[in-house]
């Protein structure tokens, strides 16, 4: 991380403080995502961040892209200050939602036990971090689609389906047909494709994997309860 660890908090959690020893400091020259994209002609539609506490700084350096082409943001957010002077979830949420993005959910939550947890049974009580997923809101997408931006619509479709939000993709198609007559044909094709997904194998596979993940979690819990203390 570019930030120093918050040792006072780490000492309260069931973590090895030695993992956070600062061995040396190295000066780095950083550049904003907006500048990198402009210099190399990159037009991003999704950004995924996991930079140990500096995600908000990076997002602020990508504001031009967030206002233009980016449809989805997946960023690790902390609920506890693992690093000094880091932004927490509320800070990141206020900034991203202020740019017209909607919180879709949390992925990969990380929970950890306190150092004084005793036998450590049950769910770890401290929610440390998670990946927050945001999509551009319908009102923001209306602005983009009203300009006949077919690339934005195609990207939004692909990203929504990739994350499993087929219904969001369908709503965007219907919005496109309403606000952008030039996108009528493309939106109709997308809707037809979305409808066909229900009979294709990939949806069954996706649902099966989700069930397997749930069953695996239940299995772990049952194994723990059946294991003598």
Provide the succession of SSEs: HHEHHEHEEHHHHH
Largest sheet: 4 strands, mixed
Number of strands: 4
What characteristic shape results from the CA principal axes? globular
Structural category is: alpha+beta
Q: Count the helices. How many?
A: 10
Oligomer: single chain
Q: Enumerate the spans where pLDDT stays under 50 for 5 or more consecutive residues.
A: 224-229
Average pLDDT, rounded to a whole number, is 86
Q: Into which percent range does the helicity of residues fall?
A: 40-55%
N- to C-terminal distance: 39 Å
Q: Could you give the order of strands across the largest sheet? A: 1-2-4-3
Strand content: 5-15%
Which radius of gyration do the C-alpha atoms yield?
21 Å
General description of the model:
Helix content is 48%, strand content 15%. It has helices at residues 7-10, 33-40, 55-60, 63-67, 89-98, 138-146, 150-162, 166-179, 184-197, 201-226, and strands at 46-49, 72-78, 101-112, 126-136. Residues 224-229 have low confidence and may be disordered. Strands 1-2-4-3 form a 4-stranded mixed sheet. With 229 residues, it is of the alpha+beta class.
């Amino acid at each position: 991380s570019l930030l120093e660890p918050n040792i006072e908090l780490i000492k309260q959690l069931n973590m090895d403080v030695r993992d956070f020893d600062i061995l040396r400091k190295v000066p780095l020259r950083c550049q904003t995502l907006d500048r990198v994209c402009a210099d190399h002609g990159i037009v991003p539609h999704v950004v995924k961040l996991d930079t140990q506490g500096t995600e908000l700084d990076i997002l602020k350096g990508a504001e031009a892209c967030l206002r233009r082409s980016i449809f989805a943001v997946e960023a690790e957010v902390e609920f506890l200050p693992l690093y000094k002077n880091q932004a927490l979830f509320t800070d990141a949420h206020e900034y991203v939602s202020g740019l017209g993005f909607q919180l879709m959910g949390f992925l990969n939550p990380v929970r950890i036990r306190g150092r004084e947890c005793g036998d450590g049974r049950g769910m770890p009580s401290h929610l440390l971090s998670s990946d927050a997923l945001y999509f551009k809101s319908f009102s923001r997408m209306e602005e983009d689609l009203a300009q006949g931006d077919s690339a934005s619509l195609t990207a939004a479709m692909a990203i929504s389906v990739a994350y499993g939000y087929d219904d969001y993709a369908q709503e965007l198609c219907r919005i496109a047909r309403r606000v952008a007559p030039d996108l009528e044909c493309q939106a109709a094709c997308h809707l037809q494709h979305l409808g066909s997904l229900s009979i294709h194998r990939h949806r069954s596979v996706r649902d099966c994997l989700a069930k397997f993940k749930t069953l695996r979690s239940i299995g772990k819990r049952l194994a723990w309860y059946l294991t003598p203390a």
